[in-house]
Amino acid sequence: MSDKGKIIDEIAGKIKSGEIQPWKTESVLLEEYNIEFPEHFRLGTLSRRKNIEELTGYKFNYIELPEKPYLMQWRCPKDNSIWHLEARDMDTTCTFCGSTLGPHGTGEERYLPLVNNYIGGKEEYYSYAGQIKVFGDVDKTFTNILAYGPGFGSIGISVGCFRVNKLGGAEVKVARWAGAARNLGYVFESDEEREKAVVVAKEFLPALRKEMEEKYLTEFSGEIYEIEFVRRQHHSQYFLYICFYSRFEHARGHGDTSSAVGFARGRMDTIFNEKGVKYIQSIIAMGFDGDLKPSPRNRRGRYVSAQVRVPISDYEKMSKTSIDSLFSYMEIDRQGVIQEQGGFLYSGMGGEIIPALYRGTKVNPRPYNVSCTENVYVEIKGDDVIFGVELPNLEVGAASSREGLICPTAREVLKFMGIGTSKEFAAAAAAITLAGEFNFTLLHLRGEMYASK
Ligand SMILES: [Zn+2]
Asked: Where does CATH 3.30.70.420 sit in the chain?
């Protein structure tokens, strides 16, 4: 074995025994093994890979290690903007002004790691974030391989995992079913015609539901568990929502549910035509089922705002009242919604932690805010404090399916992590989130978070 091979084996062994923290590997290689710069980035990465292979018993096949696994710093001579580019990146043009970038920093200062605890990957930069032990509905130790975007790091998760493991691991509860919803909308000319439709639809539904399940859902242990009828009106148009709620044991289910409801629409249209029910329009009516909107039905969505500007005096003239009245009007409505109607509010940093798992494993190609809602909670039980996180709507299907291909790199991540099922994915997501929150809370309480020196 080459000298470098021996060094990698030795460092991997020391990471495994806890003698070297995974994020200290590069500095140990420089200081104790006299490895030249920037070769230590490659050897550090190889040592962490070796450690993961030994911990899991699997070999790296698809997660690539680039020849130069580090970034280089560049500077624009015109606007002084500083650029971090992967070493293989040949495009050294400033995106702002089009100037050719020059080197930033001299010698070793120019080089930085791609991400902390880097272990490979070209399209995503994968980090090793330690192991976490869970028990309860899932008994397992997950070996965390995460892909972070800007704003978060693997070290916080690693430290949190270390702390949680030391306290005995994380107890997890995972629901058996994952829900999905899709809504079918009909528009009628009159109330009477709509009522005729409701009667016909309710007669036909038991047979239709069975067809939908057999054709689209049973493959993933899915079923339609509820169908809701809601009547709404817009001036002279009479709406009927027929919302199908499905649930799945092994899949995310939204794509399959949508296909099933699309099929139901065709069958329902035919039945209405046969029975002489006259509708103006039939449509897959999103919104009611919450698709990509922040709805309590499936909680999807993103924030966007729009505003109009009016001088106060003009507004007072326009509304024939004082501006104070506008404010108290708004507040009485706001308090009514918040205090009387309830609502759903989320806490914690799940929106930053959970995407690292989604990005790494590619099991959910949808926007992260669809599935990254979280609540952090603390409770006192006897002499103990319970610190927990709950993810009320985690969407996941670990099978590579029609819902979105999972590439071999991501399947390799799932294998290394120890995730074979949707239930295990959910357990891992909650455990990693707990580790992150637990550590960050401590840092905040100690005044060590965002503390400028
Ligand atoms: Zn520039």
From this structure: 178-284
SS3 at position 223:
strand
Predicted pLDDT of residue 344:
60
Q: How far is CA 177 from CA 106, 219, 221, 255, 369, in A?
A: 56, 15, 10, 16, 20
Higher per-residue confidence, 30 vs 304: 30
Instruction: Determine the average pLDDT of the residues in 312-317.
Output: 87
Distance between Cα 71 and ligand 1 center (Å): 19
Residue 21 has pLDDT above 60, yes or no: yes
Q: Which CATH architecture has domain 178-284?
A: 2-Layer Sandwich (3.30)
Instruction: Give the C-alpha separation, 31 to 11, whole Å.
Output: 13
Distances (CA, A) of 325 to 52, 60, 313: 64, 66, 13
Distance 105 CA to ligand 1 centre (A): 17
The values of phi and psi at residue 372, to 5°, are -105, 25
**Alpha-carbon span 356 to 256, nearest angstrom:** 25
Give the tokens for residue 339.
Answer: 């205090």
Ligand 1 center–CA 101 separation, angstroms = 8
Name the burial class of residue 379, with classes exposed (0-12), middle (13-18) and buried (19+) by CB atoms within 10 angstroms of its CB: exposed
Residue 283 scores a pLDDT above 90: yes
CA atoms within 13 A on the CB side of 398: 21
Task: State the DSSP H helix or E strand holding residue 357, giving kind and residue range, or none if neither.
Answer: helix 350-361
- What DSSP line would sit under 170-220, residue for residue? EEE---S-EEEEEEEEEEESSHHHHHHHHHHHHHHHHHHHHHHIIIIIGGG
CA–centroid distance, 98 to ligand 1, in Å, is 6
Contact 245, 227 (CB under 8 A): yes
**Distance from residue 94's CA to the centre of ligand 1 (Å):** 5
What's the CA gap between 306 and 214, in Å, rounded? 45
What letter represents residue 168's amino acid? Answer: G
**pLDDT exceeds cutoff 80 at 1:** no
- Please tell me the distance between residue 86's alpha carbon and the centre of ligand 1 in angstroms: 18
Residue partners of 84: CB distance under 8 A and separation at least 6: 71, 72, 73, 74, 112
pTM of the shown model: 0.85
DSSP 8-state class, residue 147? E
Dist. CA 104 → ligand 1 center (Å): 13
